[in-house]
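In response to the reviewer comment on reproducibility (Comment 2.3), we provide here a single inverse folding case reported in full, input and output, so that an independent group could reproduce the run without further information from us. The structure tokens appear first.
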């Protein structure tokens, strides 16, 4: 996921020492009054007080008419001390979400000049947990400075900015002793002083915004050709650095061959203090949990590295988001083709169709061209997975040679610039030597999927809708049902505790009812998809559910049998899904552990395992899974 500007308009507080200004001169929407070319920022960060102090020299170019004043955005918590031009203080005022600066003399059309902004304040929006059961989103924050770490990005508005700007950046960040800063582009200087560490980053290629991260990191580096790769991990995970450096080098080598030279001098992997998977120009921020789980896979680290070309070097034009689908295709899927794993590649295609079948009912579908950003699983199914499949079909339509030549052309022609679906259509058509209007009209501008029978596409090369009734039983069928029921065991509170916490989280979702197993409600169980917690401890509810258990599956208090194998031991837990015995259009998902600890170790992450008919856990780690046991 690339780091994005927030859409919400910030209401900024009235600044001190501001002068009243006249209304700004209206300009045409398609002719911006000015553009921001460069930021030279000096920032001092005080994590203990959640504060920062900034000095930004902003290089500005006037548009196609004389410019008398400019308006920039800045976080409501940051107070401007002064604004100057060539040393002369300028009048400014807060207007709603803007700082409006009156120039001491008009700038002629096309003239380039610089303004200095001195400002300071508190950035303190502690990350909140994502609101979804299993859908992966970063913990929600607009930016935070604190003892646990620092994350400030374009959505923080921590430097004076303007909508849709593409600028270059130089930032010198001062942090307390023992802290390290991760920035964009080249690390040009690092100086350790008694008062702190000053780190200077130079991002020469225009970018949509600037993100800084900082923490008490252990830094490790290695070279991969001309590119320096670095890890910034907390001491607890520092031993994993070599694993990440090696994986990053492999991805950089592979995708440089596909997309052209890596566009930055450095790639950094930072450990974030909150859950995230974010890609910025020349680095990625992965949450501590992801780092510990060794997220070096193509869909994790590989995905963020591909964003270095697609999304953080070539940008969306704002009219639609194509970069996530193409990145998903190249990283999550195409990596398996590169490695010759045809079975895994086929499975990835199947999963892309599966997510669409689960999360996009026909009456809630929308065209790929309308996808902007991921906010729920439906967006993920369309903007990431369907779009990836569309690129797969485009590749098959024009052939490998032309497809990959077109990708390299996209990077070489649009690096540091924005491109949209219209530009992609024209470019792919030019490289392919043919008109692709009908293809883009059908697959980008219209909703829906191909009307093709499964036996005509056994290897999932076409984007088609898989009927819900044909899907294997799985927890995600429960998640996406319109009527859901959670059944909890009763008895010893220590035994029940892990299930009670899980039930409480699920109950906050729409169309979910929760009841205890001692309530005789068989008529209700048969009219919903059921999540049955506690397994055999759920009493009458479990006895009812056993009628739908597939042959060969056994669920007992002291063990279980799935996938043709017997499991015993206090470290084991299992999730099994099968058709509701009273209504096969719905599912029953049974989750329980052979001990309280085994259940507790899995319960918080249970919904990350919603794609299989059964999953076996040992000490909280998935050790076996499969479909239709």
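Designed residues, in position order:
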């Amino acid at each position: 996921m690339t780091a994005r500007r927030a859409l919400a308009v910030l209401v900024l507080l009235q600044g001190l020492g501001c002068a009243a200004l006249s209304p700004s001169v209206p300009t045409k929407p398609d002719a911006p009054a000015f553009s921001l070319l460069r930021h030279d920022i000096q920032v001092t960060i005080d994590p203990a007080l959640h504060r920062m102090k900034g000095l930004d020299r902003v290089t500005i170019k006037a548009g196609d008419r004389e410019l008398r004043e400019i308006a920039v955005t800045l976080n409501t918590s940051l107070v401007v001390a002064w604004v100057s031009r060539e040393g002369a203080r300028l009048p400014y005022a807060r207007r709603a979400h803007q700082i409006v600066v009156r120039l001491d003399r008009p700038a002629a059309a096309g003239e380039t000049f610089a303004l200095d902004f001195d400002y300071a304040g508190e950035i303190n929006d502690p990350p909140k947990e994502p609101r979804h059961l299993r859908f992966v989103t970063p913990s929600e924050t607009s930016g935070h400075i604190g003892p646990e770490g620092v994350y400030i990005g374009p959505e923080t508005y921590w430097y004076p900015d303007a909508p849709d700007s593409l600028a270059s950046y130089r930032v010198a960040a001062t942090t307390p002793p023992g802290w390290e800063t991760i920035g964009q582009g080249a690390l040009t200087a690092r100086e350790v002083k008694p008062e702190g560490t000053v780190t200077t980053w130079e991002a020469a290629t225009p970018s949509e915004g600037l993100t800084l991260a900082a923490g008490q990191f252990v830094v490790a580096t290695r070279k991969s050709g001309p590119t320096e790769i670095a890890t910034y991990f907390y001491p607890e995970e520092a031993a994993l650095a070599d694993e990440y450096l090696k994986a990053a080098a492999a991805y950089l080598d592979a995708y440089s061959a596909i997309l052209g030279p890596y566009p930055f001098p450095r790639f950094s992997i930072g450990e974030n203090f909150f859950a995230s998977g974010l890609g910025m120009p020349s680095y990625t921020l992965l949450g501590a949990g992801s780092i510990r789980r060794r997220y070096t896979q193509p869909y994790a680290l590989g995905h963020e590295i591909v964003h270095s070309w697609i999304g953080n070097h070539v940008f969306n034009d704002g009219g639609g988001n194509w970069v996530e689908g193409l990145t998903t295709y190249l990283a999550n899927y195409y990596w398996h083709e590169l490695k010759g794993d045809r079975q895994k590649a086929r499975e990835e295609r199947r999963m892309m169709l599966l997510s669409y079948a689960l999360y996009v009912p026909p009456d809630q579908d929308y065209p790929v061209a309308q996808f902007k950003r991921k906010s729920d699983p439906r967006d993920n199914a369309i903007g990431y997975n369907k779009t990836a499949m569309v690129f797969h079909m485009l590749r098959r339509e024009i052939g490998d040679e032309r497809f990959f030549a077109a990708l390299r052309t996209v990077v070489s022609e649009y690096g540091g610039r924005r491109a949209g679906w219209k530009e992609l259509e024209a470019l792919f058509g030019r490289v392919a030597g043919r008109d692709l209007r009908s293809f883009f009209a059908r697959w980008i501008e219209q909703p829906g999927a191909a009307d093709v029978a499964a036996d005509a596409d056994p290897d999932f090369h076409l984007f088609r809708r898989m009927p819900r009734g044909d899907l294997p039983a799985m927890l995600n069928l429960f998640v996406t049902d319109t009527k859901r029921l959670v059944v909890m065991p009763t008895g010893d509170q220590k035994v029940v505790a892990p299930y009670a916490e899980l039930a409480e989280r699920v109950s906050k979702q729409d169309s979910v009812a929760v009841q205890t197993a001692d309530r005789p409600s068989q008529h209700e169980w048969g009219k919903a998809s059921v999540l049955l917690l506690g397994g055999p401890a759920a009493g009458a509810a479990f006895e009812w559910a056993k009628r739908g258990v597939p042959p060969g599956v056994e669920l007992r208090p002291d063990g279980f049998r799935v996938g043709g194998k017997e499991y015993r031991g206090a470290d084991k837990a299992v999730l099994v899904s099968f058709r509701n015995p009273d209504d096969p259009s719905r599912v029953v998902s049974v989750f329980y552990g052979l001990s309280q600890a085994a259940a507790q170790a899995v319960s918080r992450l249970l919904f990350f395992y919603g794609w299989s008919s059964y999953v076996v856990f040992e000490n909280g780690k998935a050790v076996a899974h499969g479909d239709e046991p």
